[in-house]
Amino acid sequence: MSLVRDISPRTIERLSLYRRLLLPRHEGEGSYIFSHDLAELAGVTATQVRRDFMQLGCMGVPRTGYRIGDLLSGISNILDAPSGQRAALVGVGHLGAALLNHFSGRWRWLHIHAAFDTDPAKTGGTIHGCQCFPLTDLSHLVRERNIELGIITVPKEHAQEVADLLITSGVRGLLNFAPLRLRHPATIYVENVDLTSAFETVAYFSRSRSSSALISEPHRGFPSLDDRKLSGGCF
Amino acid sequence: MSLVRDISPRTIERLSLYRRLLLPRHEGEGSYIFSHDLAELAGVTATQVRRDFMQLGCMGVPRTGYRIGDLLSGISNILDAPSGQRAALVGVGHLGAALLNHFSGRWRWLHIHAAFDTDPAKTGGTIHGCQCFPLTDLSHLVRERNIELGIITVPKEHAQEVADLLITSGVRGLLNFAPLRLRHPATIYVENVDLTSAFETVAYFSRSRSSSALISEPHRGFPSLDDRKLSGGCF
DNA sequence: TGAGAATCGTTATTTCTTTCACGACTATAT
DNA sequence: ATATAGTCGTGAAAGAAATAACGATTCTCA
């Protein structure tokens, strides 16, 4: 399968982004893209794009670019499990339901297979195309249906117990939206989506770089220069 | 105001997290916490915690710890704008509504002041306590009400135009939930919350570190060791 | 066919972030 | 008092990640 090892989280995230940006440009086998064009779409440098693709083993051709079909299959080779992966979402509140809607039927190889909640008003039916079960069924269903991932969208008071339940039921990775950090064994991968931190970070940097320091500062969130000029004048 | 400069995005995110973890423990002026206790709550190392607080100018006392009140005011001093900050959310779909609910009335100094949508069915009223206006009012209201931040939860087809509109209307920072990267001038800070990348990242690492490589690997998402033992046995 | 310019692949370098390591300090017990 | 052990602050080192730089390759056009 995937012979390439040791790809950093940052690179994985970019690969996911590259794929989304490349898909609409994949028209037939004759479609190519230059590193600097993709770089501009992705908001990164051309060097970074080339380096990322180097790790995939995807080779480009000078003055021609990368064949988009190659890139897409190279990325899929890394990101997608051959037999697909299933996730369980726990906590069908506003955020949980929004995620069900957001991810519903979007990919074949990775999808939310079932949702869980303690509220009887929410269970028993289908929400945004996803079956919703009582939490008491979780352990059984995770095992039986081979669910590998858990998405936690419950209030923070219950996040840890839900995480424990998911882990003991056999999931190997968690996507946590609760505003805290989960305790977990080293065998489980946990990705935190911290909406509060994101909001406060924007607030901070939006004023810290108010009028001064417009030069340099290749901080995350601000554009950086490269081989060639990017984003020259947005308007 | 904040005399401290050049705090990295990573540190800012942790400060936001520390504050949330500290607030419930702040009972009176006699409450203290050790760096390693907060580290465990935050899922980082004790050294990291100490270093972060060093940047705030918050001093602890050996064998006593840090006074929680000092930490909270130190963090607030960095994160919170003295006169508060307002955000506008654009795109009251499932995700937008969930965020309105999530952030509604949570903080004094930072809040979503108004929501915008093109759908007349959604505008004119209040959603989760937030007034919702037609998109055509955005430019006017952003200016008049001094809104500094934009939250973009529109479909990707409209994300760039909404960003442009927000920027020309005067916001200085964007929190982008659309699954692409926005073009923007260097004076604007943009934080991307990429739900798809997050989901695919969990999927990737949940299987890449399946049964092997349980040792070391202090990668993001996996726990790391430190001065003292953390998370010794989750169950 | 050869000159010129654009693009790639990759090593070296720089920059950023985290961890290590250890002296200094403080509470506690004897 | 003194010894002991636990915790802090921080310079130094290590580790990750991004960028720069440049030879090699390929297309275009005279």
Helix count from the secondary structure assignment of chain A: 8
Q: In which order are the strands of the major sheet of chain A placed? A: 5-6-4-3-7-8-9
Radius of gyration of CA atoms of chain A, rounded to a whole number: 21 Å
Indicate the structural class of chain A: alpha/beta
Element string of chain A (H = helix, E = strand): HEHHEHEHEEEHEHEEH
What would CATH call the architecture of the largest domain in chain A?
Answer: 3-Layer(aba) Sandwich
Taking the alpha carbons of the first and last residues of chain A, their distance comes to 45 Å
Give the oligomeric state of the chains in this entry, treating copies of one chain as homo and distinct chains as hetero.
homodimer
Which fold name is given in CATH as the topology of the largest domain in chain A?
Answer: Rossmann fold
Shape descriptor of chain A reads globular
Proportion of β residues of chain A?
15-25%
The CATH class assignment of the largest domain in chain A is Alpha Beta
Number of strands of chain A: 9
Tell me the count of domains of chain A: 2
Largest sheet of chain A: 7 strands, mixed
Q: Assign the CATH superfamily of the largest domain in chain A.
A: NAD(P)-binding Rossmann-like Domain
Largest interface: A-B, 81 and 80 residues
Q: Which spans of chain A of ≥5 residues are poorly predicted at pLDDT below 50?
A: 211-218, 225-235
Level of helix content of chain A?
A: 25-40%
| Average predicted confidence as pLDDT of chain A | 90
